[in-house]
Amino acid sequence: MEVGDLNKAMQYYKEAVKLKPSFADAHLNQGNVYKAMGMLQEAVSCYQRALQARPDYAMAYGNLATIYYEQRQLDMAIHCYNQAILCDSRFVEAYNNMGNALKDAGRVEEAINCFQSCLVLQANHPQALTNLGNIYMEWNMISTAASFYKAAIAVTSGLSSPLNNLAVIYKQQGSYADAIACYTEVLRIDPTAADALVNRGNTFKEFGRVAEAIQDYIQAVTIRPNMAEAHANLASAYKDSGHQEAAIASYKQALCLRPDFPEVTCNLLHTLQSVCDWENRDTMFREVEEIIRRQIKMSLLPSVQPFHAIAYPIDPLLALEIRYIYIYILLALTALLFASSVIFSASLFTLIFFPWQPQICDPVFINCFSLWFATICPPTPFTSEGRG
Predict the structure, then answer these.
(1) pLDDT digits over 149-174, tens only?
(2) CA dihedral sign of residues 44, 45, 46, 50
(3) Could you tell me which residues the TPR repeats occupy (predicted)?
């Protein structure tokens, strides 16, 4: 609705409540106009006046709850959604929205109950199906999550989130063609979805279709010129296809948009070396060395790979440290694959995959062990509050 239309509607509703102060619908609609105009406190006051005029007005509670939810006042939002349901036990959207608020508040089991109640009232509710899929996805129950996403897709043709999430699953499973099909459908729904273009481009690139990936990245940066990730991915695709100068330009653009982008800084340095561009070489190597030390301190995988680190004029001990970390990560991934078919003890895990443990890699060892333990002992749903 245009601003002029909103102002005109506001005048009508003000006149209506002036003529009849107990007109609950007019207070509600006036609140909706205030909300559309971004005047949230005024909207809250209108919804509260609607409830004074009609204490069992479920819609007013629902709209009030939505504002509280948007303001991240989750307890107030949950209370108001609950009041809406008490006033109207068949208020489908209140169940779904309260589920979202409960999930954000860490009360996941209660959220699941809300989404399931929503589906009892409306079995083909796409948002509730998607929301359940998201919970199971977070719990790493991939098959169950995929079934909910597919159910959501089957009942609607205009919702992109289940398609995006299903694409992630397909990509993780190596079903690149199916992932690309999902992203393509997202782009049919919204041709300006830059995130979907980048994600489809990433999938094309992993699938070996680099030229198509480049086209998606170019389209993404055309739609959203300030999207640093799209410029970075475009640069990597250019680099992999031998277009070094274009890669350098895109890496520099990504850094202009996001100066603190460690992967891009490291990739830019590597690409500059490949074309023998030595300008600011010493400064860049010092910056990359600082990035690596910071990443190791934070137990993050270094952005420089071991075979590059050995060739760089950086601290030799730091290069060796990078080598150890990558070795441990590869061994841990091997352990995860082994653990998926054979359950073995933690002591055997340590003996086989970490026969020596330099102090510098203790955090990495802990993270790898956690990954292994999570694989063989996944969290059991419905046992505790919070995210699985």
Answers:
(1) 999 999 998 899 999 999 999 999 99
(2) positive
(3) 24-57, 58-91, 92-125, 160-193, 194-227, 228-261
Tokens 């102002």 correspond to what residue?
7
Kindly report the pTM of this predicted structure.
Answer: 0.74
Is the predicted pLDDT of residue 303 greater than 80, yes or no? no
- The tens digit of pLDDT for each residue in 305-346 reads 776 776 677 778 777 777 777 777 777 777 766 665 544 444
Instruction: From 135, 203, 197, select the one nearest 170 (Cα to Cα).
Output: 203
Q: How many residues does the chain have?
A: 388
Looking at residues 356-381, what average pLDDT do you find? 43
Average pLDDT, the chain: 84
Q: DSSP string covering 283-297, please?
A: HHHHHHHHHHHHHHH
Q: Tally the domains of the chain.
A: 1
Based on the number of CB atoms within 10 Å of its own CB, is 302 exposed (0-12), middle (13-18) or buried (19 or more)? Answer: buried
Q: Domain containing 364: what range?
A: 313-377
> At 365, is the pLDDT very low, low, confident or very high (cuts 50, 70, 90)?
very low
Domain-embedded: residue 344: yes
Tokens for 379?
A: 């969290």
Whether 351 is covered by a domain: the verdict is: yes
CA 366 to chain centre: 25
What span, in angstroms and rounded, lies between the C-alpha atoms of 226 and 232? Answer: 11
Judge whether 199 lies within some domain. Answer: no
* Distance from C-alpha of 348 to C-alpha of 351, rounded to nearest angstrom: 5
Which of 203, 201, 202 has its CA nearest to residue 219?
A: 201
What region, left, alpha or beta, does residue 184 occupy, with left being phi > 0 and alpha being psi -120 to 50 degrees? alpha
